[in-house]
Write a structure and sequence with these properties.
By secondary structure, this protein is an alpha/beta fold. It contains nine helices and nine strands. It has a six-stranded parallel beta sheet, with helices on both faces. Bound molecules: adenosine-5-diphosphoribose. The site of adenosine-5-diphosphoribose (APR) has 23 residues, from loops.
Length: 241
Amino acid sequence: MQCVRLEDLDLFKRIVILTGAGISAESGLSTFRDKDGLWAKYDLAAVATPEGFRRNPGQVIDFYNMRRAIVTKARPNAAHIALAGLEERFQGEVALVTQNTDDLHEKAGSRNVLHIHGEISKAKCAECEEIWPAPIEMNLSDACPKCFRRATRPNVVWFGEIPYYLDEVAELLRRADVLVSIGTSGQVYPAAGFAAEAAGSGAETLELNLEPSAISNVFDRCVYGPATRIVPEWVDELLSA
Ligand code: APR
């Protein structure tokens, strides 16, 4: 008997899901660019750039301590849970690429998650780049556990820095059969270019968002509504196909 690997059959599909702040909005986490979003209340240049950190590190640490306290208490919603169920039940590959620094995908049970903008639950040494679990209240005087220098910062990718996992993501996009973008405004690159990149390699593309994003014209299909409704509906549709 000749064995055939599922991956060699045409039936084996690879889905790449890109998520943004909109998927966590109904868990009580603010988005960035909605009218009551974080960038309407805080100065992006002051709290989300390396220059802002050099100018006033205490203010930056305080901002992420405040956000970390909120994220720690947040619970995954029906959209995160539906995606974890998809990864568990889909007869193919499901990869999650998230711009979110929260851990709601993991709390929902997703395992295959790439945090391209880092994780707020982790600290990073600005000198040696060591990464470790952050205390809820990070302090500027915290020392790196590896090099012992006092150069602690949040493990969050700021504007002007290079996101994580870009080689892995490029490979996922090249092989993707389906690219789904959920809850992102399509205004921050490189993530805003992922749908076009996947489409260029032959993937079908779908946008699930509250409203049309800045790049909705790139997608083959768009569905608009709150993530807690439209994401479980899409997952049900896919699993029952
Ligand atoms: N369901 C679905 N989509 C929603 C919901 C919801 N309940 N609420 C808001 N949205 C949509 C908004 O319509 C918007 O298009 O989510 C999107 C959120 O967009 P942004 O606030 O720009 O967040 P995001 O795209 O993730 O930002 C990208 O910018 O500041 C940086 O590093 C930060 O990772 C972030 C990056």
